[in-house]
Every structure is written in structure tokens, then in C-alpha cells.
Amino acid sequence: MQLVPPWLEKLLGTAFFSVCRTHGAAARSECNMYCLDCNTDAFCFYCRSSRHKDHQVIQIRRSSYHDVVRVSEVEHLLNIGGVQTYVINSARVMFLNERPQPKSGKAVSHICEICGRSLLDALRFCSLGCKVVGIKRNGNTSFMLEEISSSTTRMISSSSTRRGDDELREGSQQDIYPPTPPSTSSTRRRKGIPHRAPFGS
Fold first, then answer.
1. What is the pTM of this model?
2. Is residue 167 within 8 Å of 87, Cβ to Cβ?
3. CA–CA separation, 192 vs 99, rounded Å?
4. Can you tell me the distance from the alpha carbon of 32 to that of 39, in angstroms, rounded to the nearest whole number?
5. Direct distance between the N- and C-terminal alpha carbons of the chain, in angstroms, rounded to an integer
6. Residue 62's Cα: distance from chain center in Å?
7. Cα 12 versus chain centre, distance
8. What are the pLDDT tens digits along the chain (201 aa)?
């Protein structure tokens, strides 16, 4: 029985965010798209319109210089149970691959079974890549959707509800979207016109 979809490992090994060779002069020329039907290399927004119009395509985004994918784009394709998710600017995402983490010396409640990275919740993996390693090593989980049990579904739902719209609670990072500039509408203004005091005679 196949535990890992054939396109997933290729996706995890793909380099994203290089400049498209065909549309390098265009504004949206970074290669941050991946086609599950073609299962080849990353491509840009314009390549999608011309070559992958009716294909199954997912978009890769970036946070803290690491590649992430929105849960909403893969949850109907993969059993993502056991993988930590985060909320960044109202978008729930998960990391594609393992991220190095310096040892802090602090005791943590939950860690990734593969790389030892600290997790926010009682889950098994920090990324899709670590789940792939876990499947190959232990064979006690799967990416196939039919393997999702009702208990796992309840756990994911409970975890999602509890965190709500919290943002990614880790060190400094780059958000997926640029921050909104602070409003200046509430700045106090001086009232009236200043007048000089009359000179003494």
C-alpha cells in the first residue's frame, strides 16, 4: 500500500522563489507554484496561466525564509494529521521541510519525533518533510486520506479551534504578507493659530 503520494517527495525537494527564466522581467516572476499533474519544477504566475491552466496547482509561500503551504490547499489532497500548523495573518499554514533550531536548554512539552524541534501542540511532526521520514521509518502513519481516523479529525479540529487566530508564536519572522502601515489619522493637531506676545515698551 502506498503511504506517500508520488508527487509529495518531489515537491519537498523542489527549490522555490527563483526568478522565472521566461518571465524574468515581469512583476510576478518568482517561481512559487507547483503543478501536481506535471510533477516537475516550480514555475511563476504567468507560466500557470499559459501552461497549467486546468491543472491542479498549489502555491508555496514563505515565512522566516522557510517554505510553507496553506492548509486549505493541501488538506483535501493529504492526510496532514500529526503535523503542526500555525496561523500567520489569518492564514493557517504548515512548513514543507524541517527547520534547524538551536538548543535553548529550556524544557519543552512537545517535540518533533524526527528533528526534535519544539511544537506548540501534542503532535508528532513539525513539517510535511518530517512526516515523510516518520512514515518511512515507522510505517505507523500515512498521507492517504482514507487513513484519517475520527479521533485524529477531532484532535485537529480541537487544536484549530483552541488556537483561533493566534499568530505564529516563535522568534522573529517574516510574515507571509507585508504588514499594514500604522494609521496616522489619530495624530493630534494644534488647534488655532499661535500668536506672539506683544513686545514690552
1. 0.70
2. yes
3. 58
4. 14
5. 103
6. 6
7. 13
8. 678 998 999 999 999 999 999 999 999 999 999 999 999 999 999 999 889 988 999 999 999 899 999 999 999 999 999 999 999 889 999 999 998 887 766 778 899 999 999 999 999 999 999 999 999 998 878 888 764 444 444 444 444 444 444 444 443 344 444 444 455 555 555 556 666 666 655
